[in-house]
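Researcher: I'd like a structural prediction for the single chain below. Treat it as a standalone chain; there are no partners to consider.
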Amino acid sequence: MSGDITTTTLRFARRLGNRKFRAAAGEFLVEGRQGVREALRFGAVRRVLATEEAARQFPELVEAGYDRLTTAQARELAETTTPQGIFACCLAHPASLDEVIHDQARLVVFLAQIRDPGNLGTVIRCADAFGADGVVITADSVDLYNPKTVRASVGSIFHLPIVTGVELGSAVAVAQAQGFRVFAADGSGRDLEALVAAGELDDRVGWIMGNEAWGLPGNQLDLADEVVRIPMWGQAESLNLSTAAAVCLYATASRQRATR
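Model: Treating it as a single chain, here is the predicted structure.
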């Protein structure tokens, strides 16, 4: 069934922009066709909110009914400058460490002190694209369900288990105890090319990625079995977080697929 959105429902959706309210409600807001579609596939949707135009444009997303928004209400909820007019209130689905680091897992990403929500979402998308078994996010990082994180993941937030609120050292130790070789991405250390050539990415691998501005401090670098740098031959000083993650994950996934 569909009908005009109630004041209570609209207020609830607005308040999902607040981290404390999201945590208390156990829900978060997804915006846009791709995100809503993946949320529906995952079974996480509690209700769909859409303008009449969006409902006509994306009929497959409103088959079970929706709360009708005006264009003005959609703009108020939207994080984007040109909203598609469709949203979903979704149940949060935090994973446990056991769901990420298990007997069959071969590639895991550890994210430490990530503060930019867009970067977090993009790295999750990279992890999904290159077949990682899961993502582990430290307690001092941005909220997984921040609207910008959710949007930047483009639905990947529903595709793989993601653990939040962990202590990095404990999580890395669990992975190492289960046979993972854990590498820290940093501007120092061995070249990534050397690891590829030596076959050191062929087995179970974890990558630690640090903060966008200051990277990984010494105590976090020390957690890794080895520190690895991405060689660069141009004049750029460094790569941003999501680009570095994409390079490291692609190199690892390529080797693992080739040796299966």
